[in-house]
Amino acid sequence: MGGDSAQDFFDEREAGAEMGDFQAEKQLVRAFHSRLDSAAAGALPEVMAEFCAPDMLWRGFHPFGLITGAGAVAERFWQPLRSALTACQRREDIFFAGANEIDGFESRWVVSMGHLMGLFDAPWLGLKPHGRIAMLRYCAFYRIAGGVITETAMYFDIPHLARQAGQPLFGPQTAQFLVQPGPRTHDGLLTGPQPAAEGQATLAAINWMIGDLGTWSLGLPLEEELARTWHDDMLWWGPEGIGASYTIERYAKQHSGPFRAAFSERSSTGHIARLAEGHYGGFFGWPNFTARLTGPFMGRAATDAPCEFRVIDIYRRAGDKLAENWIFIDLLHFWNMQGVDALKGDW
């Protein structure tokens, strides 16, 4: 790694070392996960302090929001969750790293996506336990600098967990509820270095799609527009409240079309991090975009109120188009902005 330790590597990189190898960052996050997942609940603050900067910024879905400080994240998020999901294990489906396009490829990030699986044995966020297996969808972006995690965006599908527990927070959805699998190709764990050209191609495909999506005004029929950047047999693994769709035709009918019809005054897209490695890539924002709810959405009437969307998107590229997409949308935050507290049963 160019030095005697991971810290030596980071010091060397700060001095201008080659930016194409992300192995030290990956090794740091894998070690963090190993210690975090095996530690007792009482030891979680110590683990966070070992791997994270004291003033780490952590972004989480409603009702957590922004938390500053590694110890505060352990106390407010990890300890209650681990007390609720006992015998918790990480079931990771996608793992990659990259340099962040948004800041001119200066910052370096590692991405992990999958499920946290445990036995739902104690209440969490007002959800009642049932003592059986439950799986919390998650995706985390970790910014690494100076040999520690300095920033995290960890998005997780609380309504999806609630549905598994027999306590749905939303009404019927347009697509399908599933405990979602990883990539069809079963090759999403990029623990080793990847060809730079593949990551560049994936980022180009994502940016092409963002350019189309950000306008909603290409003047093409929706399915033709989507076919420019997506394979016909695309898989769109959407969040609880919307659900998963398969093929361009069903995605257009079950999500994209209804979504576009429900919103107006959509802002341009803004991200905090956007990166790719190999055939995988993704981004997150805080928010990604804003809009106004001027039509029915998720079975509820229009409010004409402004709203924002906090989203993580993860993609798998095949050839020059996108084949799969895993989406985390903070719908609890979105509806809270519309005056609806789904966690308190307002639905």
Second-tier CATH architecture of the largest domain: Roll
Which structural category do the helix and sheet elements fall into? alpha+beta
Beta percentage is: 25-35%
Tally the helices: 9
- Indicate the percent of residues in helices: 25-40%
- Domains (count): 2
Main sheet summary: 6 strands, mixed
Highest CATH level, the class of the largest domain: Alpha Beta
Q: Low-confidence parts, pLDDT < 50 over ≥5 residues?
A: 1-19
3D shape = globular
Rg on CA atoms, Å:
20 Å
Distance linking N and C termini = 53 Å
Averaged pLDDT, please?
93
Look up the CATH topology of the largest domain: Nuclear Transport Factor 2, Chain: A
- Main-sheet strand order equals 2-1-6-5-4-3
| Topology pattern, helix = H, strand = E | HHHEEHEEEEHHHEEHEEEEEEEH
- Count every beta strand, where a strand is a DSSP E run of 2 or more residues: 15
Characterize the structure shown.
The protein is an alpha+beta fold. It has two domains: 6-164, Roll (Nuclear Transport Factor 2, Chain: A), CATH 3.10.450.50; 196-344, Nuclear Transport Factor 2, Chain: A (Roll). The chain has nine helices and 15 strands. The strands form three sheets. Strands 2-1-6-5-4-3 form a six-stranded mixed β-sheet. Strands 8-7-15-14-11-10 form a six-stranded mixed β-sheet, covered by helices on one side. A three-stranded antiparallel β-sheet has the order 9-12-13. Helix 3 (44-51) packs across helix 4. The protein is globular, with a radius of gyration of 20 Å. The protein starts with 5 loop residues before the first helix and ends in a 10-residue tail after the last helix.
